Amino acid sequence: MTTTEIQALAERKDAFILAHYYQPMDIQRIAGAVGDSFELAKRATAAPQKTLIFCGVRFMAESAKLLSPDKTVVLPAADAGCPMADMVTPEDVRRLREKHPDAAVMAYVNTSAEVKAECDICCTSSSAEQVARSLREEEIIFLPDRNLGAYVAARAPEKRFILFEGHCPVHRRVAAADVRAAREARPGARVLVHPECLPEVVALADGVGSTSWILREVEQAPPGGQFVIGTEAGVVERLRETAPEQACFLLKAGFVCPNMKKTSLEDVARALNGKTPAVDLDGETMRRARVPLERMMRAGGQAALSQESVPDKSERPCVR
Ligand code: SF4
Known about the structure:
about 325 residues; alpha/beta; Rossmann fold; five-stranded parallel sheet; about 40% helix; binds iron/sulfur cluster
């Protein structure tokens, strides 16, 4: 099926296609909304269509279902998961709560619905700092991404963070040596990285922020800039279309999330034709997991990790 045929089919089926920035470009091109997790969660809720075709990974489609329980939500590549989300279980959360009874539990959206059901509030990389500051509790259990947790902890020093030892295997592949090599190869380029990268990578960057922030920084810079991008390759591919006047380079070859690349146009067509099962969560999990997500939407509002900054490198307690 061609792009136009898929878009026409979506209209006939009263379906809205959403795609994360890490999706392949042919998927981003057919989507009615492209964004990071937080933007897509908002667009999914606001969409008037009855069906959401969520081109991303499972936790994103689950979050859309939690926020729009009356809509049918379909993940076209049904086996697209997130290894980081799989690193934490509901039992881990219950164990941490027992150990730290006064702490609030803050979950990155990269968690399953079952884990969210055990947490107090969710966040995305663009809302994490504002969400942390919105909490009454001084002590915060942050899960599952230790790197994002360390980054937020450095920016909200009035809070005490207990960091879970999860990570994104895609962002963790990048080392400080890769940043040094990129600077040598492209002197004068600005290095922009995602806070899921290791702290030593973040410390060497010129700017740190969510995928949306990175895109904005490049798109709004004066033409003729040079940028080294430290996040998934889909962002660089997108920038080559949205900011062709800038020279953008991937920080490291192979900076690719295999799960995000699973979606094909055929998968989307199959999902639109009702051949892929919709996201199905049990009622009790839905009821409980919606609470921290809705708290995030209220607290995280328009937040963005928008300042260029390098966090201090002080060690934080770390748990598993
Ligand atoms: S890039 Fe990392 S955090 Fe994002 S979906 Fe892939 S594995 Fe999960």
